[in-house]
Amino acid sequence: MKDKHTTMSELVELYVLGGLSVSEIEDFEEHLTQCPECLEQVEQMRQVMDFLPMASEPITPPVGMKNRILGNVLNPEKTEAEAVHHSIDDQIDQTDQTDYPANSGTPRSRTRHYGRWRAVSAGLAAAVIAIGVYTAGLRGEIKELKEQTAIAEETEQQLQASKAETARLQDQLASALKPSQGLKLGEAVKLGEAVKLDPVSQDIVAQGLATIVIDSQGTHLVVQAEKLPELQDNEAFQVWLIKGEEKKNAGTFLARDGIGALYYTFEPGNYDTVAITVEPDAYGEQPRGKLILAAPMEGSSI
Amino acid sequence: MNELIAERQLMLRIIEKDAAALEQLYDQYERVIYAFAFRIVQDTMTAEEVVQELFLRIWNHAERYDGQQGKLMTWMFAITRNIAIDMLRRKSSRHAASPVTNEVIHLIPDEHISTEQEVENRWLGEKVSEALAELSEEQQIVVSSIYYQGMTQHEVSDAFKIPLGTVKSRVRLAMKQLQKRLGQLDLLRDTARKEETI
């Protein structure tokens, strides 16, 4: 029968690699306090371990990751925008059982919330939250833009651009608030399934989410996207509702730090696909630019 | 040694809540830490979450880094793995867990290798990858399951239907072979360190 030292010394590699259970770790670490020989072996083997992370394939971090992370770490106060992302996460959890990234924008600051919405059919509450989510997101963006404007020591041109963007977002916010203002308890409202917008090719890292909200004001499409490519010159992101060969312009939007959103009210028309393209300008009636995100809308009520 | 001193000074500045120091640390390690996190969680957004959690902990608990115990990067890798494995486990508890036997990874090639540090990291990475590739397939599976997927020896035994003793011996042999291989490259040192946790 093996003595305790022999038995424990056979666990050195597993301990260092991380393959012991909690109780085994406790036993082994207790042994380490009394066994310099095993402790020395652990130290030597740990040096080997130190190099394993270096074997990871190089991969370019997502665009804007540094700003998001340092922003969240250095300013841990939760913003409305963060609350938006959390709510959207939960929505994704509910509607998509695939491994869609658990975060639609910035990573969570501290803890993950795994609570799921369970009441799509609850209609009113879900719709209000969905609209609230969107408008709160816009408020967050406006707030950030204002802060940027206040501290910016950039050129006058950049300042003007920021102000124009703020005004645009405020307009969007005002229009987005309309349906929610019109909502009353008991009013018939339906929240459609959120569908994930997937990149159309491997060189695109953008991701998005499209949601249909139906209330007494009509049918609304809410699109959120992140990791969007940087726009050049007059380029804009354009959302399309597609039925076969027919492509309906569902509005344009710009992005900041790769994140953008759009709220669009439309007449239902059995559309089968929602897509986002990068257009040379915001004035085209038909797609001319590159398709980046798309999702089938089968079974939805649009 | 100068490198160690510089790292300690950097961490002292972070303890004093010097945001520029944190940014410097971030810039220095973003790529290797992100690559390691991605290797474990296999998802870009989750990998970003891991990196954020790492820097959040560093910002809030930088005093827990003991410069006497070794290189900063080693400490950061250890915490990164803890966070990533923790996220993996939580994720697998949400979705029906299935052993990852055939990983399909969409990798974006690194197009910005310019600094001396990155070149050195790349060289190190190649050498360690070569050493890992020299392990037998059985050894690679066991090491990968434990190190990158956070499985215990018992879970590996169950998942791959191999006796516990075999798991143990494969890990031992694999680690000793890696030790020998890296020792030949003169990469191993003699100084001792202690366990890193935050």
Automatic annotation (TrEMBL), chain A:
It comes from the Bacteria. It is a single-pass membrane protein. GO terms for biological process: regulation of translation. Belongs to the zinc-associated anti-sigma factor (ZAS) superfamily. Anti-sigma-W factor family. The lineage of its organism: Bacteria, Bacillati, Bacillota, Bacilli, Bacillales. The chain crosses the membrane at residues 117-137. This is Anti-sigma-W factor RsiW. Residues 10-38 form the Putative zinc-finger domain. Keywords: Cell membrane, Coiled coil, Membrane, Transmembrane, Transmembrane helix. Residues 81-110 are annotated as: Disordered. It is found in: Cell membrane; Membrane. Residues 138-172 form a coiled coil. One of its GO terms (cellular component) is plasma membrane. One of its GO terms (molecular function) is sigma factor antagonist activity. Its main location: membrane. The keyword Membrane applies. Residues 123-287 form the Anti-sigma K factor RskA C-terminal domain.
UniProtKB/TrEMBL annotation, chain B:
It comes from the Bacteria. The keyword Transferase does not apply. One of its GO terms (biological process) is DNA-templated transcription initiation. The keyword Translocase does not apply. InterPro entries: RNA_pol_sigma-70-like, RNA_pol_sigma-70_dom, RNA_pol_sigma70_r2, RNA_pol_sigma70_r4, RNA_pol_sigma_r2, RNA_pol_sigma_r3/r4-like, WH-like_DNA-bd_sf. This is RNA polymerase sigma factor. Pfam families: Sigma70_r2, Sigma70_r4. Keywords: DNA-binding, Sigma factor, Transcription, Transcription regulation. Residues 25-92, 131-180 form the RNA polymerase sigma-70 region domain. Belongs to the sigma-70 factor family. ECF subfamily. Gene3D superfamilies: 1.10.1740.10, Winged helix-like DNA-binding domain superfamily/Winged helix DNA-binding domain. SUPFAM superfamilies: Sigma2 domain of RNA polymerase sigma factors, Sigma3 and sigma4 domains of RNA polymerase sigma factors. NCBIfam families: sigma70-ECF.
